[in-house]
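Example record used in the benchmark description.
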Amino acid sequence: MNKNIILNKQIGKNLNSSLLEWFYFEQEPVSIIRLYLLFDEWISVMCSEETIKILQLADKPYDWADGDYKYIMVAQDIKNINKSKLKDIKYLIDKHDIKRGILFLFENGNNLCYFNRGYEFKEETIFKINIQSNEITSFARHFL
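Model output (structure tokens):
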């Protein structure tokens, strides 16, 4: 299913749970790989390099490992956003006009920001709760 359709289906629904998938190497956390959000169903959001990938999932994601590589789901207890309705979604566009992330806007002025800064910043992934607009403009040129 098209990523915009998957995202737009979530507008007006309550956020029930959220997870971050962390990549570990040799028992050390390296980076955030994905954001998982549960509305009526789980969706997966991955922001990497020059793409944003959105998938609808049948089941809750789980931890897995392969040798020294581990992918661990870390629950995010976001009291002021859990059970809040999603009002809007904005793509975050960098100075090169590349979609690098998503801003989820919830009722009562709350938000979640998930963004990958790209090659210039060693693929740094940002996950913030209730990010201020001046912080967003420090890494994203505009919204779409």
